[in-house]
Each structure stands twice: as C-alpha cells, then as structure tokens.
Amino acid sequence: MSQSRLSERLDEMKDEILEGIQKSVQIDSVATEAEENAPYGPGPKAALDFALHLGEELGFRTGNVDNHAGYVEYGEGEEMVAVLGHMDVVPTGDDWKYPPFGGEIHDGVMYGRGVVDDKGPTIGAIYALKAIRDLDLPIDRRIRVIFGTNEERGSSCIQYYVEKGEEQPVMGITPDAEFPLIFFEKGMTNVTAGCKNPAQGAIKVLEFQGGTVHNIVPLHCRLVLEGEHEIPEAKGVTVTKENGNTVLVSEGVSAHGSTPALGVNGISLLLDAVKDLEIGGDYQKVFDFLRTHIGHETNGKGLGICYQDEETGETTVNLGVIEGTEKDIHFVLDIRYPKNGKKEEVQATLEKQFGEAGLEILSIDHTDMLYVPKDSELVQKLMKVYREGTGQMDAQPKAIGGGTYAKMFKNMVAFGPIFPGDPDVVHQPNEAVEIEKLMQSIKLVAEAMAEMARK
C-alpha cells in the first residue's frame, strides 16, 4: 500500500524533482585542484553546497563533513540506513547534442553530465525523503542521504567521512550502478611485474608498448626490432620494414577488463606472432612467461589462480598493459576473483610463478570483494521492492566483476539506476535519461529507503 502512496506522492512532486535535478546538473562539478575549503576544487564544492541547501530548504537535518561529503537526514531511532550518492562528475568530452551542463529536456529525455551518474539519483533520493516525510510513513530507523564529492577520482571523500568517525549505516544502497541489485563484486588484484634494467638479447628491442590501462583489453600493441626479420603472417598482426628495422603492430578487440573473454587481446596477438623468433635476454623471458602462463586464457588457469564458484563466477585475468624501456620491461595484470578466492593466496601464487621465471613484482594492490548474501535482510527487502515495483517477479540479484560505490560501507549494495537492457550512457557524450525511467528509479529508491527503515 505504501508503495502506491509513495509513487503517487512522487508523481505529484515530479516538476519539483526535475527542476532540482536540472539545477544540480547545471553545476560543473568536475574535480580540479584543491582550494581553501574546497578539497576537490570549487565545482564539487558548489554541487555539495547545492545538495546541502536543498536539504535545509526542505526542512531536514544536514551535515557537512569538512566539504569532502555531506548528508541530509530524516527520522528518529538509534539506527540509521543510508542512500550513498555522489555530486562530482567526469569531464564532458566532445560531441554533445545539447549542453553537457544544461540539464535540458527534449522529447521526454533529460540530457547532461550527471543525470544518470549520479546527480539524478542522488537529488532524487533527497526528494524521496521528502515524500516519505509528507506521507508520515512509519519508520523505525533514521534515513540519511549521504553524498560524496570525489567518487570519480577514488572515493577519498567517503574514506574521509569514515576516518572522521561519522556514523555509518546499518544497511544501505548506492543508486550508482544497475537494477535489480548487485549482491557481489569480485575481489581485485592489480599487479605490475617484470624486470628492472632489462638485458637485451640476440635481437635488440627498440620499442615495445601495448595497452593503456589495466582494466581495458588492449586493442593495439607495437614492437620494433632492430634489423630486418622474416616473420610469418599472424592473425591480427601487420609486419612492415622501416629504416632497416622490423615493425609489428597488432589489432585486437577491446572490452572491459572485468569481461576479458569478450575481447581479443592485442598484446597476446603480437606475442603469438614472434613465438618462433629468438629475441633473447629479458624480453625473451617475459614473452615466454606470458605465452606460457596467460596466452589467450582469461580465467587464470595458467597462473594457478582459477577460482570457480557457482554463485559468483570465476576468476578473470586481463593482460592490460605492457611496456619496455631502458628502466624496465613490465606488464600489468587486472585479476578479479569470486568469493572463494583469497587475495593472500593470489599474491603468494603470483610471487611463486614470477620468481620461478626470473621476474619480480614491481607493484601490487588489492581491492576487497563485496558480498552481501542473497538471504540477508537487505537483499531480501530490496528484491521485494524491485519485484513488486516492476512486476518482474523472476528478477534475480547480480554478481559482477566490476566495483561500485557500495564498497565504501559494510552491508551496502548497488541498487539502480540503470534498468536491465537499457544502454549504459555513464561517462559517455550525450549522457541522458528518459524522464519516465528516471522517475521510476526514484520511486524504487524511495520505497527501498522506507523498507530499509522498517524493522
């Protein structure tokens, strides 16, 4: 019953909600250099001030955490539940049909940087709080809408919130990913390995570079060898002779690093092309290791880290970057593993494998997995809200290889705003959302807020 009442109240507030989101989108909140009282620059600070002022105007308690983050709160009770959003945005880029900081509405669609990620859902959640209060819905826990200002550059905003000792929710959602909800996010290990001061071999390597970032399947790889060498034709690799040297360039198929099986790795293609060439030295050592232990495999089997779990999937490994310089030859692996994987085991296995090949770890970092069991109170409440709110009674929670803002707090999951089958416009030119879908997502978040606040 409360769901239809909330839905009706939010429909009555539609113009007010859309105007609030538009005003927020009109603030250029791309992070810049820190200024006094603006740790991420004046843009994120202005967007933070807007959200806090909106909360105050609507009559809610607000809090400013030293201009890193803020919150709007309603209700009474010892426990607090939360919606976590962010007010910063990525740069706009080019090729926009309408002004990226305009928030303009055309043919039932709102355009602008942040309408989906994440100002639309965050400002929408503040208005959802108003609808819950207007209806005087019975709640047993306080509801807090928390908004950071540095999510797009590492989320130090919420790290600061936690380190300052601000109250953490007993459960919560972030409307910063996909519906129905994401109950599991894989653990991640990013490792850079190779050789320092590499020794050249029988064939001198003049240039070697492939990929740009760890979390993208590399499209291209380029290798320049001193001298002219006969290299058999290889799939996806072009071989030319330039100024007495041999130049190899590969072209693969790009994909996200969390789903490397959907791409074709340009580095691996190039390594295939030179498999019969005795280059020698440390380059040979690296080439042989990568061909033997990775090749075109994407599940970590050759590295000894292939974890498999029926509920949360299997390990993925993306060879994202490789580069040779006078200083070192190094490669970067993006490794993601399901809930039966352990970062300590992953690191120990890699150290052993690299050590046996005469390679070393140059840097390594880990991101813990997020796992909120399907039978938990939070997931059960949210799936009930989603199924009843959409009529999709067979909808199931998702496990993903990527990471979301939900990792900032315990017992929090990503819940919306993108619906299954809808295009992912996040970080793209012409970021846009259908008004109908935007309102539907705000209604689901509103009901989720009320449901989490009831014991």
From TrEMBL:
Q: Which residues cross the membrane?
A: none
Record bears the keyword Zinc: yes
Question: InterPro entries this protein is in?
Answer: ArgE/DapE_CS (IPR001261), Bact_exopeptidase_dim_dom (IPR036264), M20A_pepV-rel (IPR010964), Peptidase_M20 (IPR002933), Peptidase_M20_dimer (IPR011650), Peptidase_M20A (IPR050072)
> By its UniProt entry, which CDD domains does this protein fall under?
M20_PepV
* UniProt domain Peptidase M20 dimerisation: residue ranges: 248-358
Q: GO BP, one example? A: proteolysis
Gene name of this polypeptide:
pepV
Taxonomically, which superkingdom? Bacteria
Q: Which family does it belong to?
A: Belongs to the peptidase M20A family.
Q: List each coiled-coil range.
A: none
Q: Which GO terms describe its molecular function?
A: acetylornithine deacetylase activity; dipeptidase activity; metallopeptidase activity; zinc ion binding
Cofactors: Zn(2+)
Q: Which NCBIfam families match?
A: dipeptidaselike (TIGR01887), PRK07318.1 (NF005591)
Q: What is this protein called?
A: Dipeptidase PepV
